[in-house]
Amino acid sequence: MKGPGAGPASPEPGPASPEPGPASPEPGPASPEPGAARPGADPGSPGPDRADAPKVRLRGTRRPPTRTSRLLQNRWAGAAGLLVALLAPFVNATPYALSIMTSAAIFVMLAAGLNIVVGYCGLLDLGYAAFLAVGAYTSGVLATRFDLPLLATVPAVLVVTVLAGIVIGAPTLRLRSDYLAIVTLGFGEIIRITANNLDVTGGPSGIYGIPHLADGPVAFYYLTVAVVSLAVLGAARLGRSRLGRAWRFVREDEDAAEATGVNTYRVKLAAYIAGAIWGGLAGVLFAAHLSAVSPASFTFLQSALVLMAVVLGGMGSVPGVVLGAIVISLLPEVLRDLADYRFFLFGVLLIGFMLLRPQGLWPARSKEALRSEEALR
Amino acid sequence: MTQLVWNGLFVGSFYALVALGYSMVYGIIKLLNFAHGDLYMLGAFTGFAVLGAAGGVTSAAALPLLLAVLLATMVITGLAGVVLERVAYRPLRGAPRLSLLITAVGASFALEYGTRAVAGADPRVYPVRLGGTPLEVLGARLTLQQLVLTAVAVVLMIGLNLLVTRTREGRAMRAIALDPRTSALMGVDVNAVISRTFFLGSALAGAAGVMAGAYYGKIDFLMGFLIGLKAFTAAVIGGIGNIPGTMLGGLLLGLLESFGTFWLGGEWRDVFAFGVLILFLTVRPTGLLGERVTERV
């Protein structure tokens, strides 16, 4: 068997915490002054090469871990995050706060799904909200038309989102990656306009009266947190699986991956479908949370915000992406007065991050990178 | 029938103008400039501002004035494109493709919402409106203004094509498209040529923006999003990176949309256009003229 994409995602034994950080012990003795010496750097270049350093640094794998990054790599970071999420309702349980927190949790799931596509596999999906829409509309329409409980619609949602992923992914993934970006952008618009025009989906006003998944907002919040944690954990495990390794290989060098026997097309399609499933399931939660869906929720803005969360947190880094999603979804609450400038700021931040810190706030450190770093020493 | 063809050609000439910038930039540095549609929007708003500064407009002088504004706007949006390239894209040349694409999305956002912050979220009404009396030609109703706008678009496209195929500058562009490093060794100032390419592409988009503003009468800060997508579709249909192909693609997309609207209804127009895009990428990703012409700009 040559293509890892054919095999099932076999999770490696490892700690079941959602961060993909090094399970192996920290690499060798760190130099006393981090930054003064960069072991991975070209030995000919001077140490603190501020002046002639390339503007774009590669992913932060070449430097010894600083104290902060060690803290961030801690395997308990995920558990701590979950604990915060579980305790949050005890601090503030007004319906409004609960609603915001539920939305944030759903947004985390979206970001974790997009991270599979963009972060692991390096495919830019600019229409990710389309999968959210497909999931939300499928479950919403089925639940309201046939009086089904929302849970019963999940299999249908899975089938439909996977189909949608294949329909978009199959023709475009053979092409250059930038075609995918713009086709997904178009796809996002197609889904939104279609939902707007069809009668089944209720036209511009959408569908409403979608049944709840749990009794009361608190129970739903906990249910959402549970589902989202599983989703994040699943995404992290997937990233460390054989398939996940193939994804990163494709991201770093597609030709080399192809040459070593990775069926890049299938691997990419697998990433795209996985992203679609995450988005679709988040859509079910979304529909249950709002009890109504309308086309206005699935604009390009929504897709761009998810992308922003992934980029801000650190592409390919699960804890980073979770953090990024929480920041992006709670930011409007904090920056209420700056509403007009918020998206302008987002755009500038996207450029700024790509120019100055492409690895994001909480970068991913893959085991492979750490190993090769040790080998270089 | 003739009416449909005419409408399609008219809209298609806008698409072609915007698509050319996409195509040129893509041909040279293989970058999908997502912000290109927003340069079109910026052109419409710049034209609006310039017209506002020019003061009262009498309808008799509307067309010549509009042409002057068109030129001014082209210079301004062209410079905006150069600045964009310098700030957002040049530092990332050689970086992973994903970074560039994300930067382009960021640039698009910054332009859209920057314009919103400056000009407000509400649509603006263009001070010059080209209505005009309709003429009957072969059973189609078309106005003098439509004819003039189409003529301007055609002149700009022919000019661009001459520039690319007949001048030194154009030769440099084609050389960079083939191999930037070798062209640098041959004495081509690669950065300067890329800057000028951005200038040209952005200027064309700005011109299309002013023309669309004057024709449709209303502009808003998100107007570039959809047209950016459509322009990309046009470029893909014709063969991205290929200038005559892109023009052909623009006109063809205009025609397809015109007929699609007629058959399916206006609300499905955009779905139809993107469906064509996906179909083309599946069946013929190089576009109509993508393979035959090997020289790419």
Characterization of this structure:
Chain A has 377 residues and is mainly α. Chain A has 14 helices and two strands, in the order ααααααβααααβαααα. Helix content of chain A is 62%, strand content 1%. The radius of gyration of chain B is 19 Å and the shape is globular. The two termini of chain B are 35 Å apart. Mean pLDDT of chain B is 82; it is low at 292-297. Chain B has a domain at 24-224. In chain B, the strands form two sheets. Chain B has a two-stranded antiparallel sheet. A two-stranded antiparallel ribbon of chain B has the order 2-3. In chain B, a hairpin with a 2-residue loop joins β2 and β3 (140-143). Chain B has helices at residues 2-29, 36-54, 62-89, 97-119, 144-166, 168-178, 180-185, 190-216, 223-238, 243-264, 269-283, and strands at residues 124-125, 134-137, 140-143, 218-219.
Please give a handful of descriptors for the protein shown.
heterodimer, A: 377 residues, mainly alpha, two-stranded antiparallel sheet, 2 strands, 1% strand, B: 297 residues, 11 helices, globular, disordered C terminus
User: Rounded to an integer, what's the Rg of chain B over CA atoms?
Assistant: 19 Å
How many strands of chain A?
2
- Strand percentage of chain A lies at under 5%
Order of SSEs of chain B, N→C? HHHHEEEHHHHEHHH
For the largest sheet of chain A, list the strands in their spatial order. 1-2
Oligomer: heterodimer
Mean pLDDT level of chain A: 77
GO cellular component, one term (chain B): plasma membrane
Membrane topology (chain B): Multi-pass membrane protein
Organism (chain B): Planobispora rosea
Subcellular location (chain B): Cell membrane
In short:
Chain A is an all-alpha fold. Helix content of chain A is 62%, strand content 1%. The longest helix of chain A has 27 residues.
Which helices and strands, and how do they pair?
The complex is a heterodimer of chains A (about 375) and B (about 300).
Chain A: H1 67-73, H2 77-91, H3 95-120, H4 129-146, H5 154-172, H6 177-197, E1 207-208, H7 216-240, H8 242-252, H9 254-259, H10 264-290, E2 292-293, H11 300-313, H12 318-334, H13 339-356, H14 367-376
Chain B: H1 2-29, H2 36-54, H3 62-89, H4 97-119, E1 124-125, E2 134-137, E3 140-143, H5 144-166, H6 168-178, H7 180-185, H8 190-216, E4 218-219, H9 223-238, H10 243-264, H11 269-283
Antiparallel strand pairs in B: 1-4, 2-3
Helix pairs in contact in B: 1-5, 1-8, 1-9, 1-10, 2-3, 2-4, 2-8, 2-9, 3-8, 5-6, 5-8, 6-8, 9-10, 9-11, 10-11
